[in-house]
Batch of 2 targets.
Target 1
Amino acid sequence: MRKACVIGWPIAHSRSPLIHNYWLKKYGIDAAYEKKAVKPENVAQFIVNLATSEFVGCNVTIPHKEKVFQAVAVADKIASRMGAVNTVYLKDGAVCGTNTDGEGFIASLHHSYPAFDLRTKTAIIIGAGGAAKAIIGALLDEGAARIGIINRTRERTLGLQEQFGSRVFEINATMMSDALKNCNLLVNTTSQGMEGQPQLAVDIRHLKQDALVADIIYVPMETAFLEKAKQLEHPVLGGLGMLLHQAVRGFELWFGLKPEVTTELYELVAADVQKAHEQ
Ligand code: NAP
């Protein structure tokens, strides 16, 4: 029987098994997907040995994504741009790595707002970490005209600006109000607003009237930032869609069928998130 897994340390929190086992059952595929706790010191060996193991591939979660990038035999263009791998698969016996976070965000956006055309649009990204890098790269690939970055640590913003070039710019405190007035898409990629973390303190009262506001956090499913955006009558997008859509390509690579992100799957994972949030 084919098997895939998600590796992390710790791994108990991962919702990947819920997602992939839903699809395996839905499509009647005789395969399994499980959690595998792999210690940081064993990650490289696990990846190098994957081709001769019981697994056809794996997802990778915190804190292993950078180590796995180093360990795979072949990293594709997007994984190389990220310096991080979240999906590992075998091709002609070689262990290959990619990163699907950026495409997960874009697919979620298209799923919820099919008419939202990124070309000619200006986006503002709050945060400059791994998720920000994935989303900025994907937005640029989709034709976004300009992307401003707001981040606590300036060096990280400048690093992204250097990596992605002239369409990416830094937003400092004095520019903030004007930048928000001209923004079509505002995305929080920081962990602020996540359960147990401080709230995000970006004032959106002057944000362009019809700007779409997204938060990639999914615990809670609706952050205070999104609640505020809703009150101000902005269209909003939560983080759960990104989580579900980033899983699609791994499933297709391992099991040969592109799965659908259905309302039923969304509700299944949402209920699990809600349950954990209430505990
Ligand atoms: P990361 O690389 O560690 O980056 C964290 C970002 O948050 C940095 O920009 C950091 O700013 C900022 N930050 C953290 N605490 C802050 C604070 N107290 N004040 C101001 N800024 C703060 O993490 P990541 O991998 O990008 O993940 C970020 C978030 O996205 C997490 O909540 C994660 O769960 C979520 N995520 C969701 C999905 C999904 O599928 N929905 C996928 C990936 C990630 P500095 O640069 O100043 O440190």
Target 2
Amino acid sequence: MAHQVPEDGTLLPLMEEFYTIQGEGYNTGKAAYFIRLGGCDVGCHWCDVKESWDAELHPLTAADTIVKNAMHHPSKAVVITGGEPLIYNLDYLTGQLQQNGIRTFIETSGAYPLSGHWDWICLSPKKFKSPMQQVADKANELKVIIFNKSDFAFAEHHAQLVGPDCKLYLQPEWSKHKEITPLIVDYVMANPKWEISLQTHKYLNIP
Ligand code: SF4
């Protein structure tokens, strides 16, 4: 039977939650509680969390329970990811987290309208579903995954959509990182408005 996810965001399909180190992007190296919501229809062929796509595989969980779980850890920061977390209304979850002194970071493709109260928005646009301009306007960080050479042009296109203070990152797609990383190194040296983001958690062998 299909999930009936309430529109008020008090119940959310939770795939997994775990305490670890943010491995990539601006907040690299910071301890954070990861909240991975199920459900994504963006369809990236290199997606490394395809198990997240079908929201119905992941139990509807009270946002209040997720907040309580997050509060058990020393770091007062969460990363909400997916799947594509903005499929859901995140106003309630993030409001409760912030009221409890927890900073809220999101990783999103930007394909759905922005909801929630955020301390940091990482926009990682995907080719198969363009990001909404309202998400690009609010992004603190643009992180573009580089899978092949044409992705540099894709990255430059999206750099035009974000605000002037948005941090710009290029990140090698993991399965091709040995081949792609040298291209990113050359690109960033020639175009220093960009910085390199590496999936350090994969090198560290942590989740
Ligand atoms: Fe996977 Fe993220 Fe792409 Fe969805 S947007 S298919 S979760 S990489």
